[in-house]
Amino acid sequence: MPEALQELVRNLDAAMAMPEGRFGAAVTSAIGNAVARCDWLEESQRRPDPEHYRRHILHADPLDRYTVVSLVWDRDQGSPIHAHHTWCGVGVYSGTISETFFATDRDTLQPLRSIARGEGSVSFDPGGAGIHRISNPGQGIAVSIHVYGIGAAQIVTGVNRVLG
To answer: What is the pLDDT, as a whole number, of residue 164?
Structure first.
């Protein structure tokens, strides 16, 4: 395991003991430190899929408190519109991603605003905080590091509530 990932895991383990009011900041700080060093993912963990974004599990906490994944976005790829069942921290490892937030208006999703997130940027969703979509509008590949507050066995079905 690369030193940057080992440090991320140590910092996330420490964040698990933080009081609720400091937890989000501790997670974003841990992710921010990791993505500041954009030299530790293996080539296979940065390789896109031509059909849709690709997810690589980097670390599964043995106590099932969190899972660290890299998401690889080829040009014009994006997630479905979704909300999270659990907390999630995100850091941009390379490239630029766009995060678009939505509101519901009588069962219709309306875009509110989009934020471009470049290399090194971090964000945190405490879970259920909003509806969004992540995409790669850029010319090259983008890679983001996501930490979800769920065990690896539930990563496919327990993270997102897909809305569109």
So the answer is: 67
Decide if 42 contacts 130 (C-beta within 8 A).
no
Instruction: Collect all residues with Cβ–Cβ distance below 8 Å to 112 and sequence separation of at least 6.
Output: 100, 101, 102, 103
Domain ranges for the chain = 3-162
SS3 5: helix
Rounded distance, CA 24 to CA 83, Å? 17
Q: What single letter denotes the amino acid at residue 115?
A: I
CATH 2.60.120.10 corresponds to the domain 3-162 = yes
Rounded CA separation 132/100 (Å): 5
Beta strand pairing call for 88-94 and 122-125: antiparallel
Average pLDDT by consecutive 10-residue portion of the chain (164 residues)?
94 95 96 93 94 95 97 95 91 96 86 95 87 91 96 80 75
By CB neighbour count within 10 A (0-12 exposed, 13-18 middle, 19+ buried), where does 89 fall? buried
